[in-house]
Design goal:
Distance between the termini: 21 Å
Shape: globular
Order of helices and strands: EEEEEHEEHHEHEHHEHE
Strand content: 25-35%
Number of strands: 11
Largest sheet: 6 strands, antiparallel
């Protein structure tokens, strides 16, 4: 069932006052892009842990998590205070179903993330699988404030490498931001605005949709897409929508 590993922080990235990433080396077993690991600290004699998606691709040397600070939470404020050289615990059992291996054949891959859930998709997009399987990839990242748009350099590198094969659609819901859409993801899909924005129709004939983020977004998007004939993908009942409700 795995074991707890004590590891050392290699780097902390502070995106803003409430948004961080930590990088660390750990002898984790082979995992699939899009999966998550449990990360924790000992607090008053008790190990407090939460699942976090790994932002890194499986072949990258450093593992990486991306998280927002819950002000009164028992773990995230303490993780945010860590610096390079500090210790934390990672469980060796990496798991999760948000992987390319589980998706059926498709021509267009649509990735919708809210907040820090972007990390799981970046792990996937750093591998060859999505580019080998899909003609077009649409990555949509929805946040409240423009300062919550993270990993811009990673996304620019993906764009430089894959060109017109990828469309990145930033969404900022609480303020105007150049180049970003303003409505929430379900509304953008209901109005067709996001499809017009990228010049691509989201249809059951050629699309697979991956949803990662808060449960309200995931449920609302499915309600919008189901009348179009897109249904939840399950191992015994292949469909068009893969979901991961974020931790």
């Amino acid at each position: 069932m795995g074991e707890w590993l004590e590891v050392t922080v290699a780097e902390k990235i502070r995106w803003n006052d409430g948004l961080y990433s930590l990088r660390f080396q750990a002898p984790l077993p082979a995992f699939k892009a899009g999966q998550f690991a449990r990360v924790g600290l000992d607090v008053d004699g008790e190990r407090i842990a939460r699942p976090y998606s790994l932002v890194n691709a499986p072949d990258e040397a450093l593992h990486e998590i991306h998280f927002n600070v819950v002000p009164d939470g028992p773990l995230s404020p303490r993780l945010a205070r860590l610096e390079a050289g500090d210790a934390l615990f990672v469980h060796s059992s990496v798991t999760g179903t948000m992987t390319m291996e589980r998706t059926p054949a498709h021509r267009h891959l649509w990735l919708f993330a809210t907040g820090t859930a972007l990390g799981a998709f970046l792990s996937i997009l750093k591998t060859n699988a999505p580019w080998d399987r899909a003609e077009r990839v649409v990555l949509c990242h929805s946040v409240r404030r423009a300062t919550d748009l993270t990993y811009g350099e990673t996304i620019r590198r993906l764009k430089a490498r894959h060109g017109d094969q990828i469309d990145f659609v930033p969404v900022v819901t609480r303020e105007a931001h150049p180049g970003a859409l303003r409505e929430r993801i379900p509304a953008l899909l209901a109005s067709g605005e996001i499809e017009r924005h990228v010049g691509l129709a989201l249809s059951p004939e050629d699309a697979h949709v991956m949803l990662c983020g808060n449960s309200d977004m995931i449920e609302a998007v499915q309600q919008v897409l189901e009348p179009r004939g897109l249904r939840r993908h399950r191992r015994r009942e292949p469909g068009h929508i893969t979901v991961e409700k974020y931790h």
